[in-house]
Design brief:
- Two copies of one chain form a homodimer.
- Chain A is α+β, with helices and mostly antiparallel strands.
- Chain A has one domain (3-326): HIT family, subunit A (2-Layer Sandwich).
- Chain A is built from six helices and 15 strands.
- The first copy, chain A, has helices at residues 118-135, 173-189, 193-204, 245-266, 303-308, 317-326; strands at 3-6, 13-16, 55-57, 67-71, 86-88, 91-95, 99-104, 143-150, 163-168, 208-211, 215-218, 229-233, 271-276, 291-296, 311-313.
- In chain A, helix 1 packs across helix 4.
- At the A-B interface, strand 1, strand 2, strand 6, strand 8 and strand 9 of A face strand 1, strand 2, strand 6, strand 8 and strand 9 of B.
């Protein structure tokens, strides 16, 4: 019997329909490789192919960069200008002011995030934090999203791995829903929903993939996608920008664990990786907590999902977690 | 300069970033053809390969079927059983009770919806209406969605064209948002938002693709996707199930126009087609109106969209509408 499961934060339902397929091997589909470019704009030596560098992390004592941040050459939003909010008949309109940056996490064209040495990955996470922190100084902006598209099917258009940071002049509806949903839970139960999820998942164990003390890695109860995974911090904090470097070291550890297991379980699947942080100015909401979502792209979103926001997931999170736990360490 | 545009119903924002590409020819990408099956379960003669027929439309005087409705062989939901709503610790859970039907709209393996003779297409739309009407008699169910996935990239898994009908025991959040958003507009302006959209689009003309008197075909102001199109009825009515056959004749006409133009402009693009109707029992909401959404699948949804619900659209609706109008008739 298929199951309907409701996400405790957003109240979104998922259909867990395990009769429709899908063992992990069913997802080992042909990848759509990105063409290997003649000249990679993100490789060392080609720095002139990107807009002016915003920031670079170099080894102590100097040398070539290890992490490099540049503006997106084809930005979805532009940093110059004012918002000019105005009507267009019955509609609402403003200029596309915002930031769109690219974080090149390694000079190596073929690197994978989870193969980076831990100190390098910590530098990467610190760079994410630095850029998000810097952008909140811009009074026109209200929210930023740090994300990573790995693989063509996940929306990557450049083969050389990179993250992106988009800062927006409005708080997206879906982000507000996460916060409002967390507050609804808090108002009702007088407890933080992230604490309750962690407590239940650690006790229950079926959807728990890893626990390193500071963070848990779980397959969420109402998973929308096969092998959807969340990294939840035990420490309360609403903004990723406020994490300590000590926390980032533990985050690097569990992120490496997660991406390595997904890579080996599903043969380097395309994935989207998202850091959910609260909007600028929301520094101390006791009901919300920053967290990380990793969505492997193994199924196609179709008419039903577009029309309803309901997701049909052919792999239960219990199966996904069991499979990821059983990948040899 | 990119633009931020807000949808007047849901208050969702889209980024119209036309500098990032994208003329129609940029979307003429390689299709991913579905394998031609050895035995097609939807072709005449293979009726035994589907579960027991629910309904068939045959020509007057008898003969082979023209339209055929069967249960989905791999249903996302099952029609038997009770909901058994229950907690699972902090989570909410119920059985996946519902209907999942397939509407095979023509016996011809290679048919396209917009190439069907108009009387045949009217029969198809009547069949949609009949099945949606029939399912609302089931007291466990609250909402149904009629949708069509055309092409592998749009989620189709069987080559022979077909629509699907899923009836759910809950009203999806996203459907409730459409209704609540329409009500917010109505409460504020004391006018129906669909009337206001139609009025502005017809007067303005830039996003209007076709107008046949009963329906308008528009590229919506805050389009999420390149060549997103909406079919909006002029007559007030919240439920597709309550349409008259005379309305369906005019709907068939404009639907044919829309799909034919998209087919010729974009070389048979994959698309999702969705009929938005109100939940069961919501028969007379003055603020809401049933309507049709057609989303060609030309871009990939990636980390930014998943993390925010914001869409980055490289083709403005004005360009899309102009291009669709200019396809020779």
């Amino acid at each position: 019997m298929p199951e309907l499961r409701r996400d405790p934060i957003t109240h979104r339902w998922s259909i867990i329909a395990t009769e429709r397929a899908a063992r992990p091997k069913d997802f080992l589909v042909a990848k759509e490789p990105l063409p290997r470019p003649r000249v990679c704009p993100f490789c060392p030596g080609n720095e002139g192919a990107t807009p002016t560098e915003i920031l670079a992390v170099r080894p102590k004592g100097g040398g070539s960069w290890n992490v490099r941040v540049v503006p997106n050459k084809y930005p979805a939003l532009r940093i110059e200008g004012d918002l000019d909010r105005r009507p267009e008949g019955i509609y609402d309109h403003m200029n596309g002011v915002g930031a769109h940056e690219v974080i090149i996490e390694s000079p190596d064209h073929d690197f994978k995030l989870h193969k980076l040495p831990q100190p390098h990955l910590v530098k990467v996470l610190e760079t994410y934090r630095t850029r998000m922190t810097d952008l909140q100084g811009d009074k026109r902006l209200r929210f930023s999203l740090l994300f990573r598209n790995h693989g063509a099917l996940a929306g990557a258009s450049i083969q050389h791995g990179h993250a992106q940071l988009i800062a927006l002049p409005v708080v997206p509806k879906q982000v507000q829903e996460l916060i409002d949903g967390s507050k609804r839970y808090f108002d009702y139960h007088d407890r933080n929903v992230f604490d309750d999820i962690i407590r239940q998942e650690v006790q229950d164990g079926r959807r728990l993939i890893h626990d390193n003390g500071d963070f848990v890695l779980v397959a969420p109860y109402a998973s929308r996608f096969p092998f959807e995974t969340w990294i939840l911090p035990r420490a309360q904090g609403t903004r990723f920008e406020a994490t300590s470097t000590q926390q980032l070291e533990k985050l690097a550890e569990i992120l490496t664990f997660a991406l390595d297991r997904l890579d080996r379980a599903l043969d380097d699947p395309p994935y989207n990786f998202i850091i959910h942080s609260a909007p600028y100015g929301s520094d101390d909401l006791p009901w919300y907590r920053w967290h990380v979502v990793i969505n492997p792209v193994l199924t196609r979103v179709a008419g039903f999902e577009w029309g309803t926001g309901f997701y049909i997931n052919p792999t239960s999170p219990e199966e996904a977690a069991e499979f990821l736990r059983s990948v040899p360490g």
